[in-house]
Structures are given as C-alpha cells and as structure tokens.
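Contributing new records

If you add data, match the layout below exactly. Sequence lines come first and carry their own label; structure lines follow with theirs. Keep one chain per record. Anything else will be rejected by the validation script.
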Amino acid sequence: MKRLACALLMLLASQLGAADFDYRLAAVQVAKDVYAFIGKTEDFTTDNGGNIVNTAFIVAPQGVIVIDTGSSLRYGQQMRRAIATVTAKPIALVINTHHHPDHFLGNQAFADVPIAALAETRNGIAADGNAFAENLFRMSGDWMKGTEVQVPSRTLSPGRLDVAGRSLRLVALDGHTGADLVIDDEASGVIFAGDLVFNGRAPTTPHADVAHWLAALDRLEALTRESGFKLLLPGHGKPTSDAAPIRQTRAWLSWLTAAMRESAKSGLDMNDVLARPLPAEFADMPLAATEYRRSVGHLFPAAEQEALGGKP
C-alpha cells in the first residue's frame, strides 16, 4: 500500500513538473494566414519562464514563415507544436528580428530549417548569445534546461524577400539594438515591428541608441501611413490596428532622454536620478519603475559626460 502511495505521489509530482514547464502557447489569428503568440507584459521570472515576448508565424502558400522563436528551447519546441495544430505545411524560414535573447533562444528547435537575420543581428547572437543564455538561466531557472545558442545561418538584406510563395518587405532600422528588422507583410497588412515598439509596457534599453530609436520610430510611423497597414504587432504588448504604440514608445523615450539630460545639467548624482518620480502618464505602465531604474544605469553616464562637455 505504501509503495502504491509513493508511486502515485511520484507520478503526480512528475505531472506537476511537466505542467510547470508548459508555456500554454495559443496561436491567435491576427489576420488572414497570420498568427501570433502574445506574451505577458512582465519581466523574466521562474513563473513565466520568459514567456514575455510576441512571436508569430505566417502560413504562406508553400510553407510557414516564423518570426522570432522565444526565450528557450522549450518555448521553440512548444511553438513548433502549436504551429502544427494550425497547419501541416513545413517550416520554410525562421526570421530573428534582433539579437535579444527572448527573440532567438528558441532557434534550437528550428535547427533543421533556414534561420535568417540581418548581418549585425547574426554577429550579435554569435558574440553575446551564450552570455544572454546564462543570464536567462539565472532569471528563469529550469525553463531554460537544454537551451543552446543557434546562430542564424542566413543573412537578410533590406528590400523585398520572396519566400514560400509570400512576398515580404524587409526594413532595416536600428535604435533598440544595432540592428532592428521590421517586416511588412503586405498581403495581410500586418507590420511586425519587433522591439522597436512596446505597447502598454515600458521599453528596455540595454543596447539602445535613443536618438536612432526615435528616428526609427518616425520612419516606422511613416511606413504605417504609406502601406495602409491593418495591424501592428509590437515586440511586447497587444497588437493594435493603429499607430498608438509607436507614439507611446516615442513619448517614453523622449521623456527618458530629457530627464537624463536635465538631471545631468542640474548636477544630480545617480541616486538622485533614481529617486525621481515617474510622470503620471507612465506611473501605472507595467514595469515602468523597473525599466526606469535600468535605463538610468544604461543612459545616465552618457548624459553626465555630455553635460560636462564631452561627446554623448
């Protein structure tokens, strides 16, 4: 009897453990033949396992185009299984929009198909991928088990890309990182903005050049006007049928830049800057306080140097 009870407890524990590592990815159809997995507006934790990012796929006439692969091998595997519940077509191409880990560490689950990115993104993944993975192991724990870096094998260039019977317009920008790819799927009217755009969540700035990012947002908003888009999918946050998330991201970055410069010119030290209150328009935004503190560390030293007459 005791043996039976122990066996049942072990079985239950194994089932609970398996459930703990289930991202519960659900493909949401956002346009004809276009699906997205919408992540939480949270930071990496051992509860969410890094499911904080938006990934997507397009069901093209001859195959599936995957856009970003999530934060771990488990995520990529579960993403691939979820895609298979929508279509039996093979994966034709995987695209990484930039080199942040929540967008490429699922590549390993797609190692048997072409994986593509801009040249600088490929270089960034090769150079920083292992360090990123180690950091996510610390933040997300065993969700990351078995995850290894899979560097994209193909280099993308801006312009027209025809793949699996689908024509995409690739726009190469930068600012959030050194290379940020925007994908305009003209057939559906969906623009995949990557992490140039955050919706209802404070932007992250570890590799940001804010001046370039603001210029990229201007170009992106112009693209939405020119293309007659129907849906914008940000890297984080809900998709929208308007350009409001672009303007929200711009507003945050513009305020952040001004706050850093004003603080530096006023002679404040970093502790003073960290203690500044957030504006009312951002106070309730998820992760606003956390990302503000991180951004002070990323951006304030350059603002101090600029205030002292050096190059920013």
